[in-house]
Amino acid sequence: MTDPIADYLTRLRNAIKASHRIVEIPASNIKKEITKVLHDKGYIQNYKFEDNGPQGTIKIALKFNPTTKQNAIVNLTRVSTPGLRKYAKHDSLPRVINGLGIAIISTSKGVMTDKEARVEGVGGEVLCYVY
Q: E-assigned strands of 54-123?
């Protein structure tokens, strides 16, 4: 697999389209950090890290609206790929849907949203957009 983050986002996208409640994803440190950001911002209901086998897995409980059955995540878009990395300075970080969505940024201070990176004054690699 050449792009594990794209695989992570695709598994989430597929589970949302198929209306699954729980999705299992092979774990890595960057995927764990992205999962924590998604949970903190309210895009997923819950998550659990399991250390079975050499790699471990992440179990993610997706968040659905009980009346409309619509997921909290409308769109997941990968921005920076292994073939074409996208970096942004702290003063030119992207705004997703004029601030309604989030951009997940990998910075020297860890994985955070675009708003947190602006406050910290750090730039970094733009991993994905979520709204």
A: 57-62, 76-78, 87-88, 102-107, 110-113
CA atoms of 64 and 16, how far apart (whole Å) = 9
* pTM score, whole prediction: 0.94
Q: Residue 107, class by beta-carbon neighbours within 10 Å (0-12 exposed, 13-18 middle, 19+ buried)?
A: middle
Question: What are all long-range contacts of 102-107, with beta carbons under 8 Å and residues at least 24 apart?
Answer: 102/37, 102/41, 102/129, 102/130, 102/131, 103/79, 103/127, 103/128, 103/129, 103/130, 104/34, 104/37, 104/128, 104/129, 104/130, 106/30
Distance CA 59, CA 22 (A): 7
In the three-class reduction of DSSP (H, G, I as helix; E, B as strand; rest coil), residue 64 is classed as strand
Structure confidence by residue, pLDDT tens digits, 48-87:
999 988 899 999 999 998 899 899 999 999 999 999 999 9
Largest pairwise CA distance in the chain? 42
